[in-house]
Amino acid sequence: MEQRKIGVLGAGQLGRMFVEAASRLNVEVHLLDVGTTAPAKQICSSDHHIDGKFSDASKIEELAKGVDILTVEIEHVDAKALQTVQDKGIVKHIHPTPKTIALIQDKYLQKRFLSGKGIPVADFASVGPEDAESSQAGAAKIAPLQVQAIDEAVKQFGLPLMLKSRTQAYDGKGNYVLKNVEDASKAVESLGAGSRGLYAEKWAPFVKEVAVMVVRSVSGEVRAYPAVETYHENSICHSVFAPLRHNDPAVAQRAQDVAKKAVAELEGAGVFGVELFLMSNGELLLNEIAPRPHNSGHYTIEACETSQYENHVRAILDLPLGSTALKVGSSAMLNILGVADLDADKAAIEKTFAPVVASLGVPGTTAHLYGKSGCRRGRKMGHITIVGNNDAQVRERYQILVDALDIAKKAADEGSSLPKELTIQGATNVSPDKLFKGRYASLQETVDKPVSSDFSHPHPLIGIIMGSDSDLPVMLPAAQILKRFAIPFELTIVSAHRTPDRMQVYARQTAARGLRAIIAGAGGAAHLPGMVAAQTALPVIGVPVKGSTLDGVDSLHSIVQMPRGIPVATVAINNSTNAALLAVRIVGSADVEVLQRMQEYMDSMEKEVLGKVEKLREQGWDYVVKK
Amino acid sequence: MEQRKIGVLGAGQLGRMFVEAASRLNVEVHLLDVGTTAPAKQICSSDHHIDGKFSDASKIEELAKGVDILTVEIEHVDAKALQTVQDKGIVKHIHPTPKTIALIQDKYLQKRFLSGKGIPVADFASVGPEDAESSQAGAAKIAPLQVQAIDEAVKQFGLPLMLKSRTQAYDGKGNYVLKNVEDASKAVESLGAGSRGLYAEKWAPFVKEVAVMVVRSVSGEVRAYPAVETYHENSICHSVFAPLRHNDPAVAQRAQDVAKKAVAELEGAGVFGVELFLMSNGELLLNEIAPRPHNSGHYTIEACETSQYENHVRAILDLPLGSTALKVGSSAMLNILGVADLDADKAAIEKTFAPVVASLGVPGTTAHLYGKSGCRRGRKMGHITIVGNNDAQVRERYQILVDALDIAKKAADEGSSLPKELTIQGATNVSPDKLFKGRYASLQETVDKPVSSDFSHPHPLIGIIMGSDSDLPVMLPAAQILKRFAIPFELTIVSAHRTPDRMQVYARQTAARGLRAIIAGAGGAAHLPGMVAAQTALPVIGVPVKGSTLDGVDSLHSIVQMPRGIPVATVAINNSTNAALLAVRIVGSADVEVLQRMQEYMDSMEKEVLGKVEKLREQGWDYVVKK
């Protein structure tokens, strides 16, 4: 469709997924990377690729000559060479601009820039000479100055103190956590002994790591993808969960706002990965920005209306940006990292791909393998995206892959072999159902367990609340129904009159926590359902609980006669069974599998009654009296 | 991951999308097709591709030598040559088997086979010599026999009569609709004058064309994708809508069952496209089977948990089959067919891609262009998938693309140029919002129109029903609320007591028609909400309508006091406003955009009341009395 050609510096997995998106739009891509079989080159047949380093100025110039637009899949490129090809007029557009890439390459300058623009970042300070150029001078001269600066930073920010290399730092490389001020020299030495610029950051004891992908058009329009939670192990991205769930309903929006504001300040078009720390007080601190598609945005391929890769293509071609909305209820991503080195363990690849084999039996999963031949411990060999209707379903699917990963890691560490079902040979002919136990299997297993062993699901869809434990006998049938339908729920006590603050907090958090409906039981004045409905946009189902007077009619009228504007879905007095069945129908209205189960439940009720018809016909009209 | 190599006969768009899926699983693919730049070869860098025809026995043998498994992206291959390479032991596995491919190549034998297995097909009869081989004999001898057989077929099946070539027929080529028996000779001549075997089919005046993709494992397990509606123009697939919507809730399941049964009877693994006719009496007739990924299954890439292409890879590698479930609420596919010949119109490609340009501004769309250089009228150049939460949203998005297509076709027919906004240059820098008016824009435009101009939406999410038009004054506020929230709805009269049959039919169709909830208003005995709830698995919201006696308490109790098993979500007496707000909350519980709008509505109510606080403070306590 589009005749402009794009040159990409780097042809790893990010380039590979970029090429996928570009091919779908008939866009010609030329790749610069070492070798002829780099991941992106494998799926982009062309005589125009260049074999060379993306940090090699002459190769960059060669690439530039053949294309209209240059972009990067990695920020560790020769930014000066990029600037030169642009200055020479060899290529018209470079996205993002060499200036932006250079700014991001130096984490200290990046932080100073962002801080200057009013973006919240952790407190930081230069360590030693501030001018990045001068740090190229003799290490012997600079190292003592750095040690001295660390001393000062400790006084300012306390311990532990995060020390970081300004450049060439990624996946935790170039970071040093200083716990004692006496270790300052050791830190400087370990980080490159003065040959690389350093800076210090106040320790940020975050409660969650958050990331937001932002796409920026040539004209500066910015669109944010949903905020996600990222989970790192050994400073390498392990998993991503989208959307971000949090008690504070405003956090996700604030994360998007901070990310958009930051990216809006940069120059050039494309996709940017923004990493943030969420602090215990709800504060968000921007950690760093990647000027390219990002690991935390892989999930967008299967889970969003337009993937980060297609939006990168669109942005740099100056085409309209695509929708960044989620198209599924919930999603997760698991990185497939090498669990062993191939030269030490012949089965390194097989073990590494064990979660992929497991995923073949799990609905909603898509494996992306990057076509890398060598396998090293920690190397990014692929990833798996998981999608589902809701968090509970996605977490259940995710857990199966993580279990496989744990088995594979153990096998790698112990030098033992994989269980057969985690090998390709074992997966062959195995019915998926043998691997995958099905939706919330663990929940269904509890149906017949005594009530005393029941606790709330960590990712509930339905909240069952009541004013007091005296309402439990009336409300427990609702829990039993939800278990029968394998709908994850939580059950707790929230009193409108005795815990008004708790009620407000509970009601306002529900949607952000991923709930779909609330069942509230109340007797007498029965304000709970209506007061909760006034503070959440979710459907609230009210169960009138029968008191010692008025037969529950007081509760019924109190719950059902809501003023125009705030509805409560009221069911029969003391009938929490119907409240739960209504909640199942609400979930089922957008989930065909649940709807199907409700239809089967209704069919079974019909069959049961027809059975009684038969019994009455066989045993006579007084069969009930007789038993 | 998987070391086995796959060879594919054909490297067109189906091969291209197959290669995409294979690459993601690190599976090596060798392609056989003419040239070096066939669509699939473009995205599969390899020294192993073969330049040649997939109907060339020697090339097939060459391909087979380099791989472990052979498959096809097109059925018009040399099935005998395939059988030979398998018999010679050159390749271990061919999927589907050469026998299956040969059977499907001959539509008459295919039909006879399916009919023999009890699969419902249109009545059919051989035309002339039944042995396909003998039809290679002199046309002069056979043609008169064929004309005679057509005469007999007309007597048996009536007119019009469908005449079909047994082989090499696709996209309407090889079909002849006989309207007068006198045209029999002309038909025979037009279909190849006896040189190709023919057969006759009883005319099938279908109400819808339906397709089901089925994946079959090596061991014979079959899994069906959702039944979809296909729409053809000039016998070429124009659009696909998933899932199939129909009044009869059992049709989709029956279509899947027929398709699975048919594919289970075939040999070999892989994905099969099954085309069916849905007749006015609800009968389903199998039209034909394609032994490969199919145009009607393109939508699965964006809309299903596992795409048809990945499932084809998995099936032929003997890996566990992936989930065929939809992961979005609704989906559509629009083929991008050449609107002009490139040698006649220099702007043929630009015009052909006009809907693609339009799609860049429409959320939920993904364009797939096939990398074909030549453009001919009717040539498949690409397709666009549309996903959304529900049918209404998908149809609204789809319509924008079809509008662009119509403009482009007109420009092609008249030799005029495209409007600027449908060219790539025009799309540049245009904010998507200028192209896309937003969710159900037309619906929102009617909010302030008089009631007399209101009619039901063709793809409603909510049904508003009541026993009589005398309930309209009470129920209309519900319609106004749904319009305000841009939730598509229908409004009609259904009486439990006066139209019990209509009520049953209405209630049972709702889920299959794509509705999400029903609002039922009723007074007095007020049986409608409960009786509807007894016959649908969707949530039913009851509005007690106040009668002339008992203040509506009769209706309230009648609606709310449902027996255990069947819930009705009851709202306040005469308060259809709250019923609609509850319906919006139900839709919003699985649609963040709608949930957001409900939150904004609640915020606006708060603001309105706070305004009154201010007014009272400014104008005095008697300000209401004064006005």
From TrEMBL, chains A, B:
Single GO BP term: 'de novo' IMP biosynthetic process
EC assignment: 4.1.1.21
Key words, A-Z: ATP-binding, Decarboxylase, Lyase, Nucleotide-binding, Purine biosynthesis
Pathway: Purine metabolism; IMP biosynthesis via de novo pathway; 5-amino-1-(5-phospho-D-ribosyl)imidazole-4-carboxylate from 5-amino-1-(5-phospho-D-ribosyl)imidazole (carboxylase route): step 1/1
Major enzyme class: lyase
UniProt cross-references to InterPro entries, sorted A to Z: Ade2_fungi/plant, ATP-grasp, ATP-grasp_carboxylate-amine, ATP_grasp_subdomain_1, PreATP-grasp_dom_sf, PurE_ClassI, PurE_dom, PurK
Molecular function terms, GO-annotated: ATP binding; metal ion binding; phosphoribosylaminoimidazole carboxylase activity
Listed Pfam families: AIRC, ATP-grasp, PurK_C, RS_preATP-grasp-like
Segments forming domain ATP-grasp: 111-317
UniProt family annotation: In the C-terminal section; belongs to the AIR carboxylase family. Class I subfamily.
Protein's recorded name: Phosphoribosylaminoimidazole carboxylase
Annotated organism of origin: Meira miltonrushii
